[in-house]
Amino acid sequence: MAPNALITGWGMYAPSRILTNDDLSRMVDTSDEWIVSRTGIRERRVAADGETTTSLSVNAARDALAVAGLDPAELDLVIVATCSPDYPLPATSVTVATALGATRAAGFDLQAACSGFLYGLATGASFIGSGMYRNVLVIGVEILSRFLDWTDRNTCVLFGDGAGAVLLQASDQPGGLLGFDLFSDGTGYEGIIVPAGGTVEPASASTSAEGKHFIHMLGREVYKYATRQLAESAVAALRKSGLTVDDVDQFVFHQANLRIIEHVQRQLGIPEQKTYINIERYGNTSAASVPMALAEAVAAGRIQPGDNLLMVAFGAGYTAGAAVVEWTADPQRAFLAPGEQTRLGQPQQQLGEQAAPEPAAVG
Ligand code: ACO
Predict the structure, then answer these.
(1) How confident is the model at residue 338 (pLDDT cuts 50, 70, 90)?
(2) DSSP code for 101
(3) I want to staple 336 with a disulfide (CB 3.0 to 4.6 A). Which of 14, 177, 189, 340 is the partner?
(4) Threshold 0.85, pTM exceeds
(5) Which percentage of the chain shows pLDDT scores above 90?
(6) What is the pLDDT of residues 202-246, one digit of tens each?
(7) Residue 28 per-residue DSSP state
(8) Ligand 1 site residues, Cβ closer than 6 angstroms
(9) Closest ligand 1 atom, residue 222 Cα
(10) Would you list the domain boundaries of the chain?
(11) Burial 84-122 (b: 16+ CB within 10 A, else e)
(12) Is the Cβ–Cβ distance between 322 and 234 less than 8 Å?
């Protein structure tokens, strides 16, 4: 029988610098009231100057490996889902693998915007199901703060930086990834786009002067498509897993907008207490949002062995991804002995409580 792909390790990393809505209201024409009521976001993290997509990834990945107790040299594959890589070339996954000491792992980056982590999970699980690999690290990571126009209030209030990681391991034990659904529709490619820097419009002095290397977004169109597609992807993944909404113990949505999550909750009849929300502290961290929320939900005791978990995301492209997982790991694994503690192996109330740095000019 094909091996199952179990999640045996999880971790996350958020840069320590906090940018609040009040900080933003001193940079663009916006307010805490507008941002909270339209999105649910109160603050977001912004990577420090020396931090890179690789360094954020490594922080989250080390925790995931520590939770599982796996030597990085045992990794077969590192998948990094991101739309904000260190460089257009080479792949960030390769520098991540080397920094981790994953000396015999293959690595590639995967770009499906905010849905990237779920595409990565499905890809990693497929490598395991085929018998090709046994230990696959899947990372969702973004430093979108470096792709934002900090004078554009339509976008700069929405996004944040961060990383989340899970370790998938082959096992004969039942559980793990039960089913997934992946979706894409290029008719909406202009909904969220970085117009320049690719082959259509290579980077030049004029594209830079026009701000075409920043994220541009048609918010209302994206909103409408997202609410519809998130529900459809969730239902499709459940159908493929042979489960219904009522069989799910915990929902982990992509944290793009609290109103979108609440809309889908109502559409599918999901009780509020079954949804983990952390958008108020991190904003939309794109590919990092689902694994960060997952790691926090486990640390908060919201997910126990035997629970069914549904993760679902929507993003630029458009893309969407949903996965149903039967959780098998002991949540206490994150609370390691002193000296090897992960970031989540601390009392939950400490998360997001670091001192707010000065709102120095960003970008
Ligand atoms: N502060 C104050 N006013 C603002 C701001 C701001 N930060 N941003 C926009 N406004 C104004 C607009 O200019 C507009 O003014 P107008 O009526 O005078 O024209 C008004 O607020 C309302 O704008 P809307 O776009 O209708 O606001 P809406 O309620 O739709 O909320 C938002 C906007 C939050 C962007 C919403 O549309 C949204 O969340 N869209 C989806 C984004 C998303 O899900 N992205 C996920 C994928 S991202 C990825 O893949 C990388």
Answers:
(1) low
(2) T
(3) 340
(4) yes
(5) 90
(6) 999 999 999 999 999 999 999 999 999 999 999 999 999 999 999
(7) S
(8) 30, 34-35, 38-39, 113-114, 153-154, 157, 192, 219-220, 222-223, 226, 256-257, 260, 284, 286, 315-316
(9) 41
(10) 4-353
(11) bbbeeeebbbbbbbeebebeebbbebbbbbbbbbbbbbb
(12) yes
Identify residue 254 by its one-letter amino acid code: H
Find, among 12, 5, 8, the residue nearest to 45 by Cα. 12
Closest residue CA from atom 12 of ligand 1 = 154
pLDDT of 322 higher than 80: yes
Q: Are strands 162-171 and 135-142 parallel, antiparallel or unpaired?
A: antiparallel
Per DSSP, helices labelled H in the chain are 21-25, 32-39, 53-68, 92-100, 116-129, 153-156, 205-209, 219-241, 258-268, 279-282, 289-299
**Tokens standing for 237?**
């993944």
Pair type for strands 319-326 and 162-171: unpaired
Mutate to test the pocket of ligand 1, among 30, 220, 286, 314 (most ligand atoms within 8 A of CB): 220
CA atoms within 13 Å, Cβ hemisphere of 168: 33
The label of the residue with tokens 């649910």 reads 40
